Automatic annotation (TrEMBL):
Cross-referenced Pfam families: Beta-lactamase
Organism: Polyplosphaeria fusca
Name used for this protein in its record: Beta-lactamase/transpeptidase-like protein
Source lineage: Eukaryota, Fungi, Dikarya, Ascomycota, Pezizomycotina
Ranges where the Beta-lactamase-related domain occurs: 2-342
Family matches, as PANTHER family: BETA-LACTAMASE FAMILY PROTEIN (AFU_ORTHOLOGUE AFUA_5G07500), BETA-LACTAMASE-RELATED
């Protein structure tokens, strides 16, 4: 949403590679990692294709994420490396080479963290301030913002007491135990942009919100609202931007790349087979979201979300979908790891089946 607002104002274009060259020179300078000799020495080739802002949002810019790409995980130092997307998103992005030539492969990566840097450099303000002034405040949203770990205060404010669940981990024996939030490797706020040059606010992680405010934001994407908040009447996005976000972005060849998600850390992230018949075998990516390819049919044969539904499920098993055909927004929040846990998937499927039975 934040990027599309800037696009609407004429400050940037989705398909302009020059903005990457000019404002993200660190990304533009990255080579493509093709492998590791003897599992140690990196093998590189030069980047030969342009990167555009659109590619950062549809996961085709050529990069990856260390939690979901074993090659990048090993390149960055494996399990012994304290710097990763959770503890220092900006430094991890700076340290990460590309893994494919841009536009030739689809892989969930650090594109949103690069997008966060791009938004800060375009607006010359910190991301938390920009989001607050341009998205949250106009809608009267007060229970959404960056976690304290990343320089915000959403979870420590007096008014936030009792509103946010602690992080948890489901153990192999099924027990649920609390886990501490990540500790930033580089917590020095005086270095933070725009006073300094370090970009501490990511978009791949770090935002916290109550369920009601997450769902409220998503209602803006419903066709009948088309960018307008139904509570305040404030237009957050142009209807054309909503359509662009929720439109399939990938060719058939690139779409096929999106159906399997690998894992570098099995205890935290389970391998995902999105091609399974009861999930989304014909699905694709929009801009910052996934798009359901055909009507979902659950394992037990019941109907699920409609074709064209916009959806995502985050690392802490926080799942939403926006079913424009039915005119509904659904948000189901687990707030625990591992991602893609089978018990969680079964729970969401149960909720989904009951919901659509009620709508029939």
């Amino acid at each position: 949403m934040a990027f599309m607002q800037l696009d609407e104002r004429g400050l940037v274009s989705l398909d302009d590679p020059q903005v990457i060259e000019n404002l993200l020179p660190e990304l533009a300078a990255q080579k493509v990692l093709t492998g590791l000799n003897d599992g140690k020495s990196p093998i590189f080739e030069d980047r030969k294709r342009d990167i555009t802002p659109r590619m950062l949002m549809n996961h085709t810019y050529g990069g990856g994420h260390s939690c979901f790409n074993p090659l990048l995980f090993e390149y960055l130092g494996g399990a012994s490396n304290a710097v990763n997307e959770a503890t220092d998103p900006h430094q991890t992005a700076l340290d990460s080479p590309l893994l494919w030539q841009p536009g030739t492969h689809t892989n969930y990566g650090q594109g949103f963290d690069w997008l966060a840097v791009l938004i800060e450099r375009l607006t010359k303000t910190s991301l938390d301030k920009h989001l607050s002034e341009n998205i949250f405040a106009p809608l009267g949203l007060r229970d959404i913002g960056f976690e304290d770990t990343f320089g915000g205060n959403i979870t420590s404010r007096e008014s936030s007491k009792g509103k946010f669940w602690p992080r948890n981990m489901r153990q192999p024996d099924g027990t649920i135990v609390p886990i501490d939030p990540p500790v930033l490797v580089n917590p020095e706020r005086p270095l933070a942009y725009p006073k300094g040059k370090y970009h501490t606010f990511p978009l791949g992680t770090g935002l916290a919100a109550t369920a009601s405010e997450v769902a409220r934001l998503h209602t803006i994407m419903l066709p009948e609202n088309a960018g307008v908040d139904p509570v305040t009447g404030h237009r957050l996005l142009a209807a054309s931007s909503v359509k662009e976000i929720s439109s399939p972005q990938l060719s058939e060849a690139l779409r096929n790349d999106t159906r399997f998600t690998d894992s570098s850390i099995d205890m935290m992230f389970k391998v995902a087979d999105l091609a399974a018949p009861h999930v989304d075998p014909a699905g694709t990516y929009g801009l910052g979201c996934a798009i359901q390819g055909v009507d979902r049919v659950l394992k037990d044969g019941r109907k699920g979300r409609s074709k064209g539904s916009v959806y995502w499920y985050g690392a802490a098993n926080t799942e939403f979908w926006i079913d424009g055909e039915k005119g509904i927004v659904v948000f189901v929040n687990g707030n625990y790891l591992p991602w893609n846990d089978e018990a969680w998937l079964d729970f969401v499927a149960g909720v989904e089946g009951l919901l659509y039975e009620g709508l029939a």
